[in-house]
Amino acid sequence: SLACIGIGVDVAARQTDGLLGEYIGPSAANFRDSVLTLGGLPAPVVACIGVALFVFGTLLPDIDNEKSLLGRYAHIPVEHRTWTHALWFVLVSAMASTAVPLLWWFTAGYAVHLFWDSLSRGGVCWFYPLSNYRRFGGGAKVKNGHVLRLYGVGDGSETVVVAAAVLVAALLAYWYALKVLGWPLPTPLIV
Predict the structure, then answer these.
(1) What is the pTM of this model?
(2) Of 85, 86, 161, 179, which sits most exposed with the smallest number of CB within 10 A?
(3) Per-residue pLDDT tens over the stretch 81-114
(4) Distance between first and last Cα of the chain
């Protein structure tokens, strides 16, 4: 997901023609440059810090689950997929990111987590508590009106979805390296 976001921003930043070039290109370039700036640190160092913030952002929504990676160490005792999976925190984080551009990495990670959870069988109530879940016996809950059930958390379908997303990101990164950055095709090794 991070590769897709980064490539999309950079491709938009490189646009010079038409509506994209006049409006979106310069804005995307400013955004790209601002998230890679932190004092006098080199951009690759800032990108490493940003990736760490992105990963932290992808993990934080599950802090309401005692079995999650962060929840094992710092658990927030609220019902899973309620307050920590609502859009409100993403909006507050996005507003803070306008003052501290490096926080966009964290905000993107948090939003990506919510996006992928939205595609699960249970879905996500983006506007909780204004929207809610339908509860079933055994503790199962599904977002009211949820129809897009791409995968089940923790089962084989989740592995397939993750593998497909990684493959798409790798292909996109390969295309980006060849077409946008102009890297040469790798030459086969002849022994």
Answers:
(1) 0.82
(2) 179
(3) 899 999 999 999 999 998 999 899 999 999 999 9
(4) 37
SS3 at position 125? coil
Q: How far is CA 66 from CA 73, 76, 137, in A?
A: 8, 8, 21
Strand partners, 134: 142
**What's the token pair of residue 28?**
């995307």
8 A C-beta contact, residue 64 and residue 84: yes
Query: What's the pLDDT tens digit per position in 152-181?
Result: 888 888 889 889 988 988 888 888 887 777
Q: Residue 142 and residue 163: Cα distance in Å, rounded?
A: 24
Angle separating helix axes 2-13 and 103-118, nearest 10 degrees: 120
Q: Is 151 helix (H, G, I), strand (E, B) or coil?
A: strand
State which amino acid sits at residue 98: T
Provide the strand spans (E) within 28-166.
133-135, 141-143
186 cis-preceded (ω within 30 degrees of 0) = no
